[in-house]
Amino acid sequence: MDLFITKENTALNEKYYFLKHKSGLNLTVIPKDLPTKYAFVCCNFGAADLDYSSGGVKRSLPPGTAHFLEHKMFEARDGHDSFLDFEKFGGSANAYTSFENTCYFFSCSDNFNENLRVLLSAVSGAHFTKRSVDRERRIIAREISMYDDTPSANLSHNLMNALYRSHPITKKISGTAEGIKQITKPVLMQAFKDFYVPENLSLAVCGKIDKDLIVAAADEFFLASSAAFRPTTLFPDEPETVVRQTVTEQAPAATNLYSVGFKCVPSGKDDIEAMKRGYAMRIALTLVFGRSSDFYCKNYEKGVLNERFYAGFTQTRGTAFMTFSGAGDDPGLIAEMITEELESRRKTLFGKEEFAREKKATYADSLALFDIAEDLTAAYAADVFDGYDEFDCIEALKALDYDYICETFRSTASTAARAISVITPTTDERG
Asked: Does domain 246-425 correspond to CATH entry 3.40.50.2300?
């Protein structure tokens, strides 16, 4: 008997199947007539999950734990690297950690079932040793050193520390070379035990794939008796004000790099309303600051802005902020110009015709996701933890109207809490 729920959007001619496995694991199958098959396992555990409560017990993890654990999950029971098994079966595998999730994935043309067993074997059990953890710590330290030499990464990290006082977004996803010394085998095992439970994992696959084989694989690696609930992540209270207004750092760069941030009131949780707010803000910011906006065109002609200028809106659990990044001689002047434009446009807003055009463009971009199988699979793997799917995203975007966009922009785009992060070239770079 087929236990999957079929979810379909006839207008898009797209569908997928969903099953809550008896273990608690979330299963999504996206049928596509493609030569390549894709599989993503998403764990709802990321760099922001540092302080949490599990079974009434409060625990804390060192920054970088989720990323460190990602590095160790492909160590097989006998100590060999599971990536070698993917290579044996013709699979191309990788993994990544964000502030909210850790994802493991592969693609292949043949031997899908064999590759899937390698993936599920990796994420369903932790088999590393103290020696291998110590060895990995040295590897991650070198990786951190490489990122520390990247101006763009430091620009963003410094901005988050200027905007937020104690939220985990102020920490680097990979941690620091000094901080990861606190990440030991017991720390990793505790994180695995608490967060890598079936209820907190999702498996999404895409291609010509038999649903029964997916269930059989879940039966093999995730027992019903292993069901448990995800811990509750604890976030500190954040003031509405910023920590500091300006932070400047020197680095090897050809010119000044800047990132201007405005702290916004965060959504209460990740849900459909938060998703709609995100769409509305991104459309509004494109109207005001995008490549065809008066602001950009006028200042581009003056030489104040260039092709590197970017305006965006980001929200994570407990954060929401607008960012404006680029390169230029006078970041302070650009920050003032952005602030003035935000204040002005909160009053004058934008025309209905330009809103309609931008909404159509955004809608077209969203539809394109359904033709990019790898990205679509990744999206479905993560969506389940937010309580919506890609069909909901399309419908929410379609339903956005002019009044909603205007009200969301007016209420969200506050300029009261602003911070500027600047990277200036070292003397040698200036010549």
From this structure: no
